[in-house]
Structures are given as C-alpha cells and as structure tokens.
Amino acid sequence: MNNYTDVAEFVLQGVSGNPWFQASFLVFFSIFYTMAVTGNTLIFMAISLNPSLHTPMYFFLANLALMDIACTSTVLPKMLEGLVGKGSHISYKGCLTQIFFLSWVLGAELLLLTAMAYDRYVAICRPLHYSMLMSTPVCVLLAGSVWAVSAINSSVHTGLLVRLHFCGPNQIRHFFCEIPALLLLSCSPTTLNNIMAVIADVYFGVINFLFTMVSYSFIIASILRIRSAEGKRRAFSTCSAHLVVVTLYYSTIIYAYVQPGSGSSMENSKVAALLYTAVSPTLNPLIYSLRNKDVKVALRKVFPCVC
C-alpha cells in the first residue's frame, strides 16, 4: 500500500510574474469584472422587468447573462486577489469548488448557445410554427435541461477528482483551477478522468458546435431565399448578435483546449482563458444591447439615468 500525504492547498501560477504587468492587469481586469457584472445585471433586470421582452429569445438571453455573471465571478475575484499581493494560494476544497462552478457554467453556456441557435432556426425557417415549437413550457424545459445536464456533468468530473490523491508538487500552471492542470499534479491514475473529459469535450464542444452550425446553415439558406433586400436584412439582424457571440465563445474555447499543455502554449492557453472568462462576459451585453433596439428601449425604461 502507498502512503499519501495529500496537499492541503495549491499555488496558482497567476497571469504574470512581472510586477509591472501585475499592476496593469489588476487595473485592467478590475474594470472588466465591474463591466461584466454590471452589464449582465442590467440586461437581466431589463428583460425581467419589461413584459415586452418576455419572449423565448430574451428568456434565453437572461439565462446567458446569469451564466456570464457566474463565470466571471468564479474566476476573476481570486485572480484579482493574487494580483493585489494577497497570495495565489487556494485551498484543496476551494480549488474543487472553483472547478465545479466553472465547469457547470461553461458547459451550460455551450448548451444554451445551441438552444438559442435552435430558437433562431425556428423563428426564421418555421415562423408559422414558432409559437407552438417555442412555447413557454418548451423554453422552460430547454433552459432547465441546460442547467441540469451541465450540473450533472460538473458533478461527475468533480467527484472523479475527489477520489484522486495529490501528494505534490502543488503548483498549478494557470491563474485558476481547471481539470487538465489539476490532473497533471495527481499521484493517482487519471485514466478514467481523462476518458470522461474527452467524452464531455466531444459532447459539449463538438456535438453542440455541429448542431449550431447546422442550424445556421438552414438559417442562411432560408435568408438567401428571401427576395427583398430589406427582408434579408431584417431576418439576419435577428440572429447576427447571437452569431457574433457564438463565434467569439467557440473560438476562444477551442483555442484554449487544443493547445498542448507545455511551454509557450500554456501562456497562449491563459490568454484564451482570459478571453472566455473575462472578455466574453464583458462584451456579450454590449453586443446584444448595441445591436438590438428592443433591449435599448427596455434599458431606457428601467434605467433612464443609465441610458
């Protein structure tokens, strides 16, 4: 039998060891965190308080805002704490908690983007059946399934991590706890963890990406069949914001997880992780509000002093 002395805490490598860069990052990401939380909160409240926005598209957008708040709040506060010099240590339980919530939110966001693509497909390709196919019970079922399936997936991965032993070293080569970086530190076999990670990546990443692309192929084909230029413009405007968000989100996720785990690629992975944990949650409210007149009107009604 092997005797293990499990580590009680991990040390996060952080974004950069250069003091000048740390000060710049502190200011930069403090602003991003504030903007992300404020912008998504405004979007969520505007949709919730405005009856005219109680439609499937905005219902899913409100869920996306909640996910963005949870995503950035899971990662950035701990990163900012390390940047102000309070140490980059995180407890074993704190690390697993961060992994659970981040995996939950990231998986849910991928599923939600697929549900939003389906909503746009029905709206443009099958408008006469929209009220039936995207009724309130159907939307609630879709949103509930998104949260539940991702929570189950996250629980499985966290449970598989709990069974592992970590006996040193305890330095995580990232600015937050994530499954691939933590598996590299395990003293126990991680074969099952790696298999489940691949299955999850295929389902949440590849399959949902394909579903989204298939939906948009039908959408684009349907738009091209519209004869008037004004009709094409109006149809495309209903899904352009979602398409921008999908492109931004999937490009950063794919870039982060196709990189090998060593050398300069780890630094590239950090950059990609910053994009989907800080930049994307900040830009999403701007993308949807700047390109959507209904959201602008709702924000002006609910928050006249802000707009």
What does this protein structure show overall?
Residues 39-288 form the G-protein coupled receptors family 1 profile domain. A 3-stranded mixed β-sheet has the order 2-1-3. It has helices at residues 19-49, 56-83, 92-125, 130-133, 136-162, 179-183, 191-224, 229-257, 264-290, 293-302; strands at residues 9-12, 89-91, 171-172. The protein contains 10 helices and 3 strands, in the order βααβαααβααααα. It has one domain: Up-down Bundle (Rhopdopsin 7-helix transmembrane proteins), CATH 1.20.1070.10. With 307 residues, it is mainly α.
Task: Spell out the helices and strands N to C.
Answer: EHHEHHHEHHHHH
Q: How do the strands of the widest beta sheet line up side by side? A: 2-1-3
> Radius of gyration in whole Å, from Cα?
21 Å
Query: What general form does the structure show?
Result: globular
Instruction: Please give the count of helices.
Output: 10
Total number of strands: 3
Task: Kindly report the name of the CATH homologous superfamily.
Answer: Rhodopsin 7-helix transmembrane proteins
Proper CATH architecture: Up-down Bundle
Strand content: under 5%
**Residue runs with pLDDT of under 50 for 5 or more positions:** 260-264
Structural class: mainly alpha
Q: What is the CATH third-level topology name? A: Rhopdopsin 7-helix transmembrane proteins
Q: Determine and state the CATH class.
A: Mainly Alpha
Domain G-protein coupled receptors family 1 profile: 39-288
Keywords: Cell membrane, G-protein coupled receptor, Membrane, Olfaction, Receptor, Sensory transduction, Transducer, Transmembrane, Transmembrane helix
Main location: membrane
Organism: Microtus ochrogaster (Prairie vole)
